[in-house]
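Entry 12.
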Amino acid sequence: MARDRPRVLLVEFARPDPAAVALGRLLRDEGLEVIHAGPLGTGEQILRTAEQEDPDAIAVLGDPPTAELQAALRDFRVFTTPEEGARWAVSHRENTV
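Predicted 3D structure (C-alpha cells):
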C-alpha cells in the first residue's frame, strides 16, 4: 500500500529530549506523518517499534546512539539531530514536488 506522505518515527533515546516536540511539529508542518514514540531505553525497543510502524526514517534524539543501536537500525534512514531531521524533511518535500 502506497502512502500519501512519508512517515517518520520520532524517538527520544534513553531520556526525554525537549527538542523532540519541536522537531515533531516541524516535520508535521513539512507534510510528514510523525509517530512520536517518546523515550525508549534500548536499541531493541527502538528496532521493534520501527518494525511495527514501518517508517521511512527514524529520528533518534537524546543521548548519542550507540554503535549497537546504529547497527540495529542500519536498514532505516536515521537522523540524530533536529537539524538533520529538518534538512531531510525539506529535501524530501523538494524531491516530491
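Annotation: DSSP finds four helices and four strands in the chain. Strands lie at 7-13, 33-40, 57-62, 77-79.
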